[in-house]
Amino acid sequence: MNIDRTDRRILALLSNNARMTNKELSFEVGLAASSVHERLKRLHESGLIAGAHTDVRLEQIGLSLKAMLFIQLSEHKKQDLDRLLREVLKIPEVRAGWMISGRFDAVVEVVTTDTTHLHRLVVEQFSSRPEISRIETSIVFESVVQNDLSETLQLIEEGQSVNV
Fold it and tell me: Whole-model pTM?
């Protein structure tokens, strides 16, 4: 799929505010709302736009402790890692998981109410799993996120084919 400058501008605008209407987007990019609608339809159908999400400030409802669990498996089998990541996403405290390279096999992001909750989660939901041989836990003191894709999307050249 090829994306042009207008597609990149639409994606950048939506990265800052996923609730923008077609009318607002059309004003910003200088196209008719129907043209923007067709572009959005194409971007969704191609899978380039996978969804829109609301950022909920979990710390405001008591889930103020974020941690990263660095997990090493007993045996390095991809199917075990795939299964582990699928299964841990069912744990309510788990926000995300990644298969990584290096000393560890996976990183899992969790949120909890406090260190007691974190300790209980690690012991009951992770350490008890036979396929996990080692876990290192790092508490996140502060995090920043870059949602604005304006600069990032400029890394894609005009008319460059994008694999989706």
Answer: 0.81
